[in-house]
Write a structure and sequence with these properties.
Layout: E1 2-10, H1 12-18, E2 33-38, E3 44-48, H2 61-68, E4 77-79, H3 82-85, E5 99-101, H4 102-110, H5 115-125, H6 130-143, H7 166-176, H8 180-186, E6 190-193, E7 198-201, E8 213-221, E9 225-234, E10 237-246, H9 249-264, E11 267-273, E12 277-283, E13 290-294, E14 298-303, E15 308-318, E16 327-335, E17 338-347, H10 356-374
Parallel strand pairs: 12-15
Antiparallel strand pairs: 1-15, 2-3, 2-10, 4-5, 6-7, 8-9, 9-10, 11-14, 12-13, 13-17, 15-16, 16-17
């Protein structure tokens, strides 16, 4: 015979461990738009004008690299076109007719944000037809669901109709970071290319400064202002922050730093269940109740500042025998209707069913007790 016992309680001890920053409001940086999200879950933590279509400058190069790598291998050697070499603005610089590896062009485009490197990649991938390459970029944007995005150039220089949004930049950056060579390059502050003859340097001022920063891409033009999408990794999660249209490089950096710090503070990895007693079950024949221990600790990621509920589902009483390690319930931890995890509850000791004599003696004692209670 088993009767079910269910106990649900808010777990204040757990909440107190990570709720301290919960009341902190999201920063409001000086920018046209921003977006903060958890890359693992897609949860949006903060946003402002996230679907507004604005120029994104060299963040465009993330799409250029995605598309180029569909047609080129990093080990390939390509010839730089005259058009790519003369594009101007940020450059490696390249020379018309120069032979260079795709890997070096990727480093130039992603680390130093070189326009000539991006255009050289596009030309090599599309046989010199930039219009065809841009068409591929827009096809890929549609495939990724980037409804606010339209590309006109592979380098991100200002052009009418070359637009995206903070939301779409997050999706684009997360997609680009699935490519191993992109992940490798965007976290580098500098790199030697062309056999060590030239060194490229990043425009990402937070690399090596903000803890756990792993990229991703900066951008700046007169129309776009100062832009960046950045990713900061913590154990079990990665926070992306996008900031578009800041008035200066310093203001962009400060705003992005605040957004990332606030974003990573939204989560904590905590022990929700320990290997301790969470309930006990009554036994027959007058035997002492048996404690129920969690089978193993439960440590997981939780959203800070949101209440946790611990729910114990266990047998209120069981028939004998009970064996040590026998599962007689479970402990669950919930947050806002989502089950974060559970652990079985196991009997802490064995208890045997008494023999015939023991059972007769127990029934006799119970009968005498009941009769005694009837006496006036």
């Amino acid at each position: 015979m088993r009767r079910l016992l269910c106990i649900a309680a808010v777990a204040p001890a757990l909440a107190a461990a990570f709720a301290a920053p919960a009341g902190a409001a999201a920063p409001a940086p000086d920018a046209r738009a921003w977006y903060v999200a958890n890359a693992a879950t897609g949860e949006v933590l903060a946003e402002h004008a996230a679907r507004m279509r604005v120029p994104i400058a060299s963040i465009t190069k993330l799409m250029t690299v995605i598309v180029a790598l569909r047609h080129l291998k990093p080990s390939d050697t390509v010839t730089v076109t005259r058009q790519a070499a003369l594009v101007g603005e940020s450059s490696i610089p390249l020379r018309p007719g120069q032979q260079i590896s795709v890997h070096d062009l990727l480093a130039g485009a992603l680390i130093q944000s070189a326009n000539d490197a991006a255009d050289a990649l596009a030309a090599a991938a599309a046989g010199g037809d930039e219009e065809r390459f841009v068409g591929w970029m827009n096809t890929e944007a549609a495939r990724l669901g980037l409804g606010d995005t339209h590309f006109v150039r592979p380098d991100g220089l200002d052009a009418p109709g070359h637009l995206s949004s903070a939301h779409d930049v997050f999706v684009l950056a997360r997609r680009a970071m699935r490519i191993p060579i992109v992940r490798e390059l965007v976290r580098q502050r500098d790199a030697a290319i062309e056999g060590g003859a030239f060194e490229v340097h990043t425009w990402n001022d937070l690399l090596g400064v903000f803890p756990g920063l792993i990229g991703v891409k900066t951008g700046h033009t007169d129309d776009a202002g100062w832009c960046e999408v950045a990713a900061a990794r913590r154990p079990g999660y990665t926070i992306y922050a996008v900031i578009l249209g800041s008035p200066t490089r310093e203001i962009r950096n400060a705003g992005l730093r605040r957004l990332l710090a606030w974003g990573v503070s939204r989560y904590r990895r905590v022990t929700l269940v320990r290997r301790t007693v969470y309930a006990s079950v009554a036994l027959g024949y007058g035997r002492p109740s048996v404690p129920l221990l969690a089978s193993a600790p439960l440590r997981t990621l939780v959203h800070a500042g949101r209440p946790l509920v611990r729910r114990v589902v266990a047998a209120a009483a069981v028939s004998l025998p009970v064996h040590r390690g026998e599962q007689l319930g479970r402990v669950e931890v919930w947050q806002e209707g989502k089950l974060l995890g559970s652990r079985p509850l196991l009997a802490a000791r064995s208890v045997q069913r008494p023999g015939l004599g023991g059972r007769i003696g127990w029934y006799a004692s119970r009968t005498m007790h009941d009769l005694w209670g009837l006496l006036p």
